[in-house]
Amino acid sequence: MVGVFGRSLSFPNKNPALPKPPRTHHTRSVSLPTRSHPLLSSLRDQLSRLDAWSSSSPPASSSARFADGLSRLCNALDSLDDALHLPQAQSLLRAWPQLAEKLLEDFLHFADAYGIFQCSVLAFKEAQMAVQVAIRKRDESKIASYMKARKRIHKEMRDLTSTIKCAAKCGILHGPDHSPAPDAELVAGILGVVEATASVSLALFGGFASSFPARKPSWSSRLRLSQKAKVNERIEELECAEERLWSLRKMKEEEVREVLRKMDDLEGCVECIES
After folding, report:
1. How far is it, in rounded angstroms, from Cα 98 to Cα 109?
2. Which of 8, 35, 113, 116 is the most buried (most CB within 10 A)?
3. What SS3 state is found at 193?
4. How far is residue 13's CA from residue 93's CA, in Å, rounded to a whole number?
């Protein structure tokens, strides 16, 4: 009970207490930032790895580069799946249904696109095996169907690129009352994965489309492409000297073996990306 009440003492021989001089500085309260959840930190790290992959895009790449990008994207999607099971993520999606609907819509578009991509690649692999048999037999009659398969996959990849560009348009940055998101870090991670999925998909589908041109570009068209701000990466192993396939009967054995080796590289490229 002694410490509860204060006692004032006065001494008659002491001067009255003088007022305290004003402070010349302000006392600042130090607040430590709240640590992120480990799952959100992991998601942020995966997105950083994807940003590093996207920022280093040469004009022509090997299939190993695209396989690496898809592997990084898979890790980011796994991290997002873990983060969405957090209680704060469940609360966010319940309180913000527009974000949940947009997330579901975007990933349905991505799933449809990759389903079409797998079907296109499977059809091309069948044409690839058929043309390898034709090359060994020096049967030029089968070359036309192979060229049609290359043009078909070019068109399908161009269509997929347009689909992904439409799906990548995400304008949900605020809640229904135009207030900032209640958990900005989590929302940034969700939208970051959507954008990264679109970026890797555009690079992959655009790479296939550029490597299977519908027709050989003229000098003027190549000049216009070089002047564009961004040109799709080509996949080196997918490029093929099509004009050589029309002269199988005139080829020497060494030239035929070289063409078959390039075809094997192309097949390995597709399998590398598929895996």
Report:
1. 17
2. 113
3. helix
4. 72
